[in-house]
Design goal:
By secondary structure, the chain is of the alpha+beta class. Helices cover 25% and strands 42% of the residues. The protein has a domain of 100 residues: Sandwich (Immunoglobulin-like). Keywords: Signal.
């Protein structure tokens, strides 16, 4: 019984120690979403409805007006400096010519933890880019890359 108590004590210390170590900034999730002519990604707040409406917009390109990327990122306490998100897009226009576009957005929050940021393509940029086939989102602290996430087609 005494041996089991010591084991629990050491396990608690290990968990506490792991949670106190400083983390790194990172891009946790990227959700590319088509927008219709009214700027909507869904017709209601339901996640099920959002997924169904996104499937409809994928099947019917004539209903798409623009695109946005919902990005979940994390800022730990040890990262100083100005953060910015950069999104690099590769698309194929209707004429079959590949295009690339880079967008940047400075992040103004100094709070640590997880944050959602939305980056929206202007309708003219979306039409010039064509169908987005690959993307990469990077998180920068001044001029240092601190996190990234990319679509599986980015390196191909």
């Amino acid at each position: 019984m005494r041996r089991l108590g010591k084991w629990r004590w050491w396990a608690c210390l290990a968990i506490l120690g792991a949670s106190l170590t400083p983390g790194t900034a990172q891009v946790l999730k990227v959700l590319p979403q088509y927008l219709d002519r009214e700027g909507r990604a869904a017709r209601s707040p339901s996640l099920f409805d959002r997924d169904a409406y996104q499937a409809q917009l994928r099947r019917h390109p004539e209903l798409r007006e623009s695109m946005r990327f919902q990005i979940l990122w994390r800022r730990p306490p040890n990262v100083t400096g100005n953060l910015k998100l950069r999104i690099e897009l590769r698309g194929v226009a209707r004429d079959g010519i590949p295009h690339e576009q880079t967008l940047e957005q400075p992040l103004t929050t100094k709070r640590t933890g997880r944050h959602w940021t939305s980056i929206r393509l202007a309708p003219d940029t979306f039409r010039a880019l064509g169908d987005v086939v690959a993307w990469r989102v990077t998180l920068w602290s001044d001029d240092t890359l601190v996190g990234q996430q990319q679509s599986f087609l980015w390196d191909r």
